[in-house]
Write a structure and sequence with these properties.
This protein is α+β, with helices and mostly antiparallel strands and about 180 residues long. It is built from five helices and four strands; from the N terminus they run ααβαβαβαβ. Helix 2 packs antiparallel against helix 4.
Length: about 180
């Protein structure tokens, strides 16, 4: 088990993955971390869709014009969605669950990258969420927050540089 202090320094976004498949137990551990994430009022209203079909991942990668094509190389994508009518904190709850899954993946030695989908889409105005809902048959009342690309790291990333932390952005008692 990695110390959390080290884990947060080591976790970096990875956009390159090897061809190795993911172990089912690793995927389960990652999703378990999301399911255990804290939520507003303990609602746990998020939905996670695990995608391991290459063709489907490629379609998800095309749901927006920029910043998602690298997903085509990921063996697994985890879509995080929520129902805004059931939970006014669905974005926050989904975000906490997503980063929990990313930290768990890092602890397992796997790479991840958050792909923002909420508020994104194609140049013609089609939202990424509506495209993803169509691909994965997600009911219309759900909105898509992000997709986590997950896989064995295909690149090396240096740990976060402690010297680049922006301590000037931290305030005590007053701004």
């Amino acid at each position: 088990m990695t110390d959390f202090k080290d884990l947060v320094q080591l976790r970096r976004s990875h956009r390159k993955f090897t061809d190795c498949e993911l172990d089912g137990d690793d995927v389960k551990a990652i999703v378990r971390a999301g399911l255990m994430a804290p939520t507003s009022k303990g609602q746990r209203n998020w939905q996670f869709i695990i995608v391991d079909e290459k063709e489907t991942i490629e379609k998800l990668a095309d749901a927006k014009d920029m910043g998602s094509q690298f997903m085509k190389g990921a063996p697994v994508a985890i879509v995080v969605a929520g129902d805004p009518l059931q939970n006014d904190c669905w974005v926050e709850d989904g975000s906490i669950a997503a980063i929990s899954m990313q930290y768990q993946a890092e602890e397992l030695g796997l790479g991840t990258c958050w792909v923002q989908m909420r508020g994104r889409g194609l140049n013609d105005g089609t939202s990424a969420g509506s495209i993803i809902r169509g691909i994965l048959e997600i009911p219309d009342n759900y909105d898509v927050l992000c997709v986590l690309a997950v896989g064995h790291k295909g690149d090396e990333r240096k740990p976060q540089n402690e010297d680049r932390l922006r301590w000037e952005n931290v305030h005590i008692n007053k701004f």
